[in-house]
Design goal:
This protein has helices at 7-17, 21-25, 41-49, 99-103, 124-129, 133-144, 148-164; strands at 38-39, 54-57, 61-64, 86-87, 90-91, 106-111, 114-120, 174-182. The chain is α+β, with helices and mostly antiparallel strands and 184 residues long. The chain has one domain. It has a three-stranded antiparallel β-sheet with strand order 1-3-2. A hairpin with a 3-residue loop joins β2 (54-57) and β3. The relative contact order is 0.19. The model has no long low-confidence stretch (mean pLDDT 85).
Length: 184
């Protein structure tokens, strides 16, 4: 089993795993994949360098800035703001999109101090994969092939995001695939 050591290699493996997902996304009515988008610190620097607005919280948690309002003025009172880079159900920064967007509908969830790799089942594509054992095995294998330092960076960023976030409609619905690691 060849290890995935780079961000780029991980993105390529995700693109292969999710081959055909954009066709399903075009028909989807669920809006959660357009909410708060957390970033790895290196991603935040790269995207900021491309002119994409970044929100930094507590010096170490990064998001695409979701509070861009009318005429570019900040609006922090919007309930569950949409991603400012999603226009007419299309990502306008698709080739530069954040890792969490590339991973979706896979993500992490924390239960009883354990981080799990999960499949978000509110996503239309994920619902089609809920009973697809081969897809789930490929997803698990992909994350098991991640270099430990890359996986640690991912889970640390998720834990930071999770510690300051709350889902406005209650907990996300997901299918647990595999435990990733225990939290200290």
């Amino acid at each position: 089993m060849k290890k995935i050591r780079s961000f780029r290699g991980f993105c390529q493996a995700l693109a292969h795993l999710f081959d055909g997902i954009s066709e399903v996304c075009g028909r989807c009515q669920y809006d959660d994949c357009k909410g708060y988008v957390w970033l790895l610190s290196g991603e935040a620097k790269r995207l900021y360098g491309l002119g994409i607005e970044i929100l930094q919280v507590n010096n170490n948690t990064f998001f695409l800035n979701p509070f861009v309002g009318e005429k570019g003025k900040p609006d922090i009172e919007r309930f569950k703001p949409e991603c400012p880079y999603c226009k007419k159900k299309r990502c306008v920064v698709y080739s530069q999109r954040p890792l969490v967007c590339r991973m979706y509908p896979l993500n992490f969830a924390i239960e009883d101090g354990t981080i799990y790799l999960v499949l978000h089942i509110d996503c239309l594509y994920a619902r089609q994969k809920m009973d697809d054992v081969l897809f789930q095995e490929k997803a698990i294998s992909l994350f098991q092939r991640l270099d430990q330092s890359l996986l640690s960076r991912l889970t640390r960023a998720f834990v930071l995001f999770s510690s300051i976030s709350k889902f406005p409609r209650g907990k996300n619905r997901y299918l647990r695939l595999v435990p990733v690691r225990k939290l200290p």
